[in-house]
Amino acid sequence: MKKYLVLLLVLIFSVSCKKETTKTVIEAQVETKQIKPSALIEAFKYKPNATPIISVHRGGKGLKNYPENCLETLAYVNDSIKAIYEIDVAKTKDNVLVLLHDNTLNRTTTGEGKIIEHTYKELEAFNLVDDYGTTTEFKIPLFKEVLVWAKQNNVVLTVDIKRGVEVSAIADLIREVGAEDVSLIITYDLKQAEAAYAVAPELLLSVSARNAKELDWLLHSKIPTQNMLAFTGTRLSDTTLYNAIHAKGIKTILGTLGNLDKQAEAKGNTLYKTWVEKGIDVLATDRPFAAANAVK
Length: 296
What we know:
The protein is of the alpha/beta class. Helices cover 42% and strands 14% of the residues. The model is unreliable at 1-33 (pLDDT under 50).
């Protein structure tokens, strides 16, 4: 009798586990189907002879009276050229997401000290400073208000997540605003890229593919190639790398900020066009007006 009772209990337990497992799988499938891919995944597929894209570093640098990572600067540049905007997102003491590149307030604001030591209320007392040391009337913007502006104006943001900020917090706010179609997340290595994809599989990711080895890592990762925008570094690579990336349907992005921008300034802005002809689809630059004029 005990033997039959034990067998009955085992059978009931097995059926129960099977039902629970089946339910979990079905729920996961439903959840997966509910995820709507960002429109950028289709828009940023590699296509030969597509119009080059200008990516404005830190939302605009080196502009008199217009500081970096400033909403008013984004609007100012956007009034003149068609571009996408790289922005830096940091976190305050009270976990508010704002735009700021440095760990401290000293360089770009009238405040001092680490941003993580200040509440957002305290930040409101400070003003942004341009690259020439001029204090402006502009304030440190909330990431949320920049997302709202981008969505309203159909402007693409590439989000550089600063140290201490969780990718999940970025993704949650993007979803809250409904800005998935104008937002992509920047990652710097395979580990970051895989973590970002796990949290936000619907978003386009900027991934590091500076050489054939890094590209191979990406291609053997769990990240679909359709979710990738390949950052090829701040130095020119051989065209074979760009061709290999394009063969997978992925656009390339080159960081001209720094030395390459200086080369173009000294030798002529036509260099931007030359780099595009070598296989670059997106130019990440501190000289957006010059680059845009050169490749239009």
